[in-house]
Amino acid sequence: MNSENTSGAPRYPDYPKPPFPKQTQQLPGSFRLLEPAPDHGEESWRGSGRLEGMVALITGGDSGIGRAVAIAFAREGADVALSFLEEREDATDTARLVTDSGRRCLQLPGDISDPAHCRDMVKRVVDEFGRIDVLVNNAAHQDSFESLDEISDEEWQRTFAVNIHSMFYLAKAAVPHMQPGASIINTASVNADSPSPSLLAYATTKGAIQNYTGGLAQLLAEKGIRVNCVAPGPVWTPLIPASMSAEKTSQFGSNYPMKRPAQPVELASAYVMLAEPMSSYVSGATIAVTGGKPII
Questions:
Q1: The CATH number of the domain where 213 resides is what?
Q2: For residue 6, what are the contacts with CB-CB under 8 A and spacing of at least 6?
Q3: Is 89 among the domain residues?
Q4: For helices 265-275 and 64-75, what crossing angle results, to 10°?
Q5: Which of 5, 133, 145, 199 could disulfide-link to 150, CB 3.0 to 4.6 Å?
Q6: By the 8 A CB rule, do 282 and 230 touch?
Q7: What's the total number of domains in the chain?
Q8: Does the active-site annotation cover 169?
């Protein structure tokens, strides 16, 4: 929601602050069960043609940051392919908003920890749209553990397979179908620089993503393909009640300078900026969206 403003100046968003209702969900979670309801830009994002005619593949595109990016990209003129694990209702609703914007949308359910599925997704996008201009590696798995011995081998491997290995599989499959001017945008985290001990596996992958981004940007520079990442702070998404206690969820974001978590729509502008052609010299960058908390 936005605070009332009758002066004609831009409105400063009056988003909810903790404490929130205590709540939990089962992984991977659904935005439809979050209280308060998150803002993905459903009503607020107004496009201006910044991505006109482009094709984007977005992982984790059903909810959270991915949903906000899908809405923004579509309203900026891009066709969108949505990759998601199993949240069919969330994905279908996001796809509806894309098509309501006058753009085409392809839904791609499945597990991105599987390299064969990643390659198949890219093939399906190319078959449907003819190319890929933007690859947004956004999907993530996280869970909280208070001690090292609570983290199973399977949990560690699952976190790496979803969060970082999939980025390699997808980039390797997508790059042959990308032209100069295309870009890859990875979702890192403030945890890459300031790791939370209870999110050890997740935070470790986010550090790897930031390094992967810097290396891949150099590797693909001569092809004219840019690679960047966005490092969010706390964001109000289904992953929070699905991976944290009800008590932690109720106070989520309260320890940041703005005293609240970001709404997903507040991340979308960073992804649009990194994807648009006018950002042609931006590569190897990390864009921090952290509500005033510096990344060191």
A1: 3.40.50.720
A2: none
A3: yes
A4: 50
A5: 145
A6: no
A7: 1
A8: no
In a domain, 6, yes or no: no
Within a domain: 53: yes
**182 within some domain:** yes
Please give the structure tokens belonging to residue 249: 């969820």
Note down the domain range covering 196.
32-289
Q: What angle do CA 206, 39, 64 make, to 5 degrees?
A: 30
Cα gap 256→292, rounded to integer Å = 7
Q: Which residues, including other chains, have CB under 8 Å from residue 86's CB and lie 6 or more apart? A: 28, 109
Amino acid code (one letter) for 267:
L
* φ, ψ (nearest 5 deg) of residue 8: 90, -5
Residue bearing tokens 């490092």? 231
What count of other Cβ atoms lies within 10 Å of the Cβ of residue 94?
A: 29
Burial pattern 226-251, b for ≥16 Cβ within 10 A else e, equals: bbbbbbbbbbbbbbbbbbbeeeebbe
| Whole-Å CA distances, 203 to 137, 220, 250 | 16, 26, 21
Query: Among 12, 15, 169, 202, which one carries the catalytic annotation?
Result: 202
